[in-house]
Amino acid sequence: LQPEPVKGGCAAAPGLELFALPVEALQREPFEHAGRLEQRRDRLRRRQSLESGALPLVLGGDHSLAAGSVAASADWVRHTSGRPLGVIWVDAHADFNTHEVTPSGNIHGMPVACLCGVGPEALTMLGGSAPAIGADSLRQIGIRSVDAGEKRLVKEHGLDIYDMRYIDELGIKRAMEEALEGIDANTHVHVSFDVDFLDPAI
């Protein structure tokens, strides 16, 4: 489960670092492999992608990998750059379940909660401290499915959500303008994108 660089750079983004991250074992035994997510976060940091000014692009089988990649960005911002962090989470799901409220038990429904310090320590401490991010640094775009127990947690933690109903009524341009409000040139922006955002059938 170690990330391996696939290709470095392209004409459009010469500093790009691309990683392929298999997640099959995480789907089968999520908590047993929490340490592997931490290794991914450490590997990304050790490669000094962010320190060198490169743009890290992390691809994987599901959105659970963002628990490691966002934690890496938050750790770098906290200890190196000192810049504020803004996380743009583009997804059909809020991913704010915990092991206590999840109807499926799948870790890919938990990364946002874990990043905000809600969940088992093995997952909330991936960035070395919990929470890795504050809910106020997060904007969620395109949400259309939230589980019942998850909905309560989302409200308790005050997540800033621009769901599909909001986007349908006001348009994506206005939703994005509102989501990006307060994010300036000094902000380190981490975009985490789940392809299910693109497909209403999922």
Q: What does this protein structure show overall?
A:
This protein has 202 residues and is an alpha/beta fold. 34% of the residues lie in helices and 18% in strands. The protein has helices spanning 24-28, 34-46, 66-81, 111-115, 121-124, 148-157, 164-170, 172-179; strands at residues 4-8, 16-21, 55-60, 85-90, 138-141, 160-162, 188-193. The strands form two sheets. A four-stranded parallel sheet has the order 6-5-4-7, sandwiched between helices. Strands 1-2-3 form a three-stranded mixed sheet, with no helix packed on it. A hairpin with a 7-residue loop joins strand 1 (4-8) and strand 2 (16-21). Helix 2 (34-46) packs across helix 3 and helix 7 (164-170) crosses helix 8 (172-179).
Helix content: 25-40%
The strands making up the biggest β-sheet line up spatially as: 6-5-4-7
How much strand content do the residues show? Answer: 15-25%
Tally of contiguous helical segments? 8
Report the radius of gyration as a whole number of Å: 16 Å
Order of helices and strands: EEHHEHEHHEHEHHE
Largest sheet: 4 strands, parallel
Q: Which structural class do the helices and strands define?
A: alpha/beta
- Poorly predicted tracts of residues: 1-23
Number of strands: 7
Mean pLDDT: 80
Specify the overall morphology. Answer: globular
Characteristics:
18% strand; 34% helix; alpha/beta; 202 residues; disordered N terminus
Describe this structure in a few short sentences.
This protein is an alpha/beta fold and 202 residues long.
List the helices and strands and how they pair.
Layout: E1 4-8, E2 16-21, H1 24-28, H2 34-46, E3 55-60, H3 66-81, E4 85-90, H4 111-115, H5 121-124, E5 138-141, H6 148-157, E6 160-162, H7 164-170, H8 172-179, E7 188-193
Parallel strand pairs: 2-3, 4-5, 4-7, 5-6
Antiparallel strand pairs: 1-2
Helix pairs in contact: 2-3, 7-8
